[in-house]
Amino acid sequence: MVHSQTIDGSERGVLDQYVHPQSGQTSLPDVVLRPAGGNVFEATVEQLATAIRLGVFTNGEQLPPERELAERLSVSRNTLRDAIAALRESGLVTTKQGRGGGTSVTYAAEHPATVVSGSFVRSGAAMLDALTFRRVVEPGAAWLAATQSLAGDQRAWLTESLREVEIAPDAAAHRVADSRLHLAIATLSGSPMVVDAVTRAQAALHDMLMAIPVLRRNIEHSDAQHHQIVEAILGGDPDRARAVMEEHCDATSALLRGLIG
Amino acid sequence: MVHSQTIDGSERGVLDQYVHPQSGQTSLPDVVLRPAGGNVFEATVEQLATAIRLGVFTNGEQLPPERELAERLSVSRNTLRDAIAALRESGLVTTKQGRGGGTSVTYAAEHPATVVSGSFVRSGAAMLDALTFRRVVEPGAAWLAATQSLAGDQRAWLTESLREVEIAPDAAAHRVADSRLHLAIATLSGSPMVVDAVTRAQAALHDMLMAIPVLRRNIEHSDAQHHQIVEAILGGDPDRARAVMEEHCDATSALLRGLIG
DNA sequence: CCGCAAAGGTCCGTCCCGGGGCCATTGGTT
DNA sequence: AACCAATGGCCCCGGGACGGACCTTTGCGG
After folding, report:
1. Considering only CA atoms, which of A249, A31, A43 is closest in space to residue B189?
2. Which residues does the UniProt record annotate as the domain HTH gntR-type (chains A, B) (predicted)?
3. In degrees rounded to 5, what are phi and psi of residue A52?
4. Which residues in chain B have Cβ-Cβ distances shorter than 8 Å to A37?
5. Of B195, B197, B201, the CB nearest to A31
6. Which of A33, A137, A153 sits opposite B25 (nearest CB)?
7. Is the dihedral of CA A244, A245, A247, A251 positive or negative?
8. Which nt is closest to the CA of A65, judged by C1'?
9. Residue B197: its chain A contacts at CB < 8 A?
10. C-alpha angle with apex B223: B257 to B178, nearest 5 degrees?
11. Where are the domains of chain B?
12. What is the CATH number of domain B124-257?
């Protein structure tokens, strides 16, 4: 509801600008110049909603105090409050006043349609792009994590994240736990830029996976791969960690490619 | 073990927030919540300056008309004009009025100190991060490019980019041509998100490489690797393309790691 | 020679957002 | 019971970004 909506009604997706309409030729300026995402308010809503949906904040958990969260997001408290209000109206969080109060997550992880209004509808090209991107960064993150000498609590965190995935009671919980595991692996890579990349890939992936039915068989296969990945990371075997993660991404990719344009 | 720890006045850098000061423990909210870069004007200046320094716009070449460029960057023409004015005062571009006029690049690629004022001073941690990130995304991009069935003009573009690197007369020209080659490879991956990632990695890399003396021997070794990479991509050998690119990144990384914190 | 078109140059009104101060509510502590 | 601290709720101001409209310069073509 911001700009866009120029006079040509052709609804150009963000991605179409990467290719010259006339020739199929791509040139560097077309590809490199990326729009600096507009609207701070919407971006904040989107980021918080994504964080919640990805399980960065688990159910019932409290968000940091507004003043702190605002500073961390480099956003004024006003804007942050507006964003939180939007989330509240979407039923993702509830807020309580007073000491010990705050905003806490109430995420049922159901109703795949009731997501926050701005949940981005991605074009087919964007989805394929996200899958491709993920296929690059997630194996890279796994490889890096396996090269690190992990501390005891880090190893425990990884093991615990894996376990949470395996004992997830239903598909929705499994989805959240899966995101958390992948983000944990990315975090153990030690590289903030890698974490950022994986976060974006997971965010895009999440929207897609929420839209399809999940087969029990797929989950079992996926969990077996998770186990191998964690094993390889803990065992310090980067190449194996990467190889299995590649298989893992390819499996998801194959599953999703059939369902999009 | 949530956050808290609000009131320490210790001038925390952007990256430090990824780790808890007290325990070395990292938690997802700390890692995932990323600030949404402020100041649109500065971001625009930085992006254009980077594009020029990376050779996205070659010397003498004209930038797109203001109205078009503004729309592509999702920035108002006012802001874009301010940014261009800043570049003009830094001597990176010149502007001419009237039909056939416009803003064109005048980039000598010398005076490593005269860079635009905002050229980001990255902390040691951020540099290591960038090197790590690059080590993940560039091999991934090369792998992807090698899996694509490239059209004739794409193959020609790649070959030409390689040649430009090899015939570069001096270190500065070599730097620009090198960036262009890497961005070309990323573009041929076909994934905008990958291009974006490589662009960010190259931007960070550029600032580092401009600060160190370059040895003839290093350039020769680098060019040999470039040749192998392009060969592997054109020959449709993804694994080899990735392997050589990894060596290539490792070489640069080793070169730079000695010179930073 | 004249007019048109394609650029940059300028200005203005509107609104979003950041910064900061202050109030209201609530629960713990003395 | 009284106080205090932590937290959300509210408001106002100022600057910056946006989006238009309009002017100026310049080259090309009829």
Report:
1. A31
2. 38-108
3. -70, -45
4. 36, 74
5. B195
6. A153
7. positive
8. D7
9. 133, 136-137, 197
10. 70
11. 1-32, 40-105, 124-257
12. 1.20.120.530
- The whole-model pTM stands at 0.88
Would you mind telling me the total number of residues written for chain A in this entry? 261
Residue of B nearest to A130 (CA): B193
Look up tokens 């296969």; give the residue.
A221
- Tell me the mean pLDDT in the region B59-86: 94
Per-residue confidence in pLDDT tens, chain A, 261 aa: 333 333 233 333 333 433 443 344 567 778 888 777 778 999 999 999 999 999 999 878 899 999 999 999 999 999 999 999 999 999 999 999 989 889 999 977 664 444 444 445 567 888 999 999 999 999 999 999 999 999 999 999 999 999 999 999 988 899 999 999 999 999 999 999 999 999 999 999 998 888 788 788 989 999 999 999 999 999 999 999 999 999 999 999 998 887 765
- Which residues in chain B, range 40-99, keep a C-beta under 7 Å from any nucleic strand D atom? 40-42, 74-79, 82, 96-99
Residues of A in contact with B18 (CB under 8 A): 192, 195
Q: Between B18, B135, B186, which is nearest A192 by CB?
A: B18
Per-residue pLDDT tens digits for B1-48: 333 333 233 333 333 433 444 444 567 778 888 777 778 999 999 999
Which nucleotide is closest to the Cα of A39 by its C1'?
Answer: C16
- For strand D, the positions having any atom within 7 A of a protein Cβ are 5-12, 16-21, 24-28
B166 Cβ contact partners less than 8 Å away, ≥ 6 residues apart: B223, B226, B227
- pLDDT value at position B223? 96
Q: Is the minimum distance from the CB of A101 to strand D below 7 Å?
A: yes
Q: What is the DSSP code string of A61-85?
A: PBPPPHHHHHHHTT--HHHHHHHHH
